[in-house]
Amino acid sequence: MSDVTDQLDQLAAGQIDLDAVVSDFGSRQWPQPDPEPNDPFEAEDSDPEPDPEGSFAEVAGYYARGKLTDDQYAALAQAAAGAMK
């Protein structure tokens, strides 16, 4: 488990509030997936790399499983997008 999933579990359990997670997400260094190969044939032959631990994909996964509300996801996505600029 990553610190992202730990925070999301705590948020879902009501142990921390959304503002605390938004604040952290807005200031963290988000890992970025490896870039796609430039050669289309190389991309065709290789399996995609899994998303790095602690990436925003973990947040998207929680949302897809119904563990975050639309408003929570929107707030977290906006904070993370600001940190990724």
Provide an overview of this structure:
The chain has 85 residues and is mostly helical. It has one domain (3-31, 52-84). It has helices at 3-12, 18-27, 40-45, 56-64, 70-84. Helix 2 runs parallel beside helix 5 and helix 4 packs antiparallel against helix 5. The longest helix has 15 residues, at 70-84. It is elongated. The mean pLDDT is 86.
Descriptive key words:
single chain, 85 residues, mainly alpha, elongated
Write the layout of secondary structure elements.
Elements: H1 3-12, H2 18-27, H3 40-45, H4 56-64, H5 70-84
Helix pairs in contact: 2-5, 4-5
Number of domains as seen in the coordinates: 1
| Alpha-beta content class | mainly alpha
Morphology call: elongated
What distance separates the N and C termini?
25 Å
Which strand-content bin applies to the residues? Answer: under 5%
The tally of strands reads 0
What share of the residues lie within helices? 55-70%
Largest sheet: none
Q: What is the subunit arrangement here?
A: single chain
Mean pLDDT over the residues = 86
Number of helices: 5
Tell me briefly what this model is.
By secondary structure, this protein is mainly alpha-helical.
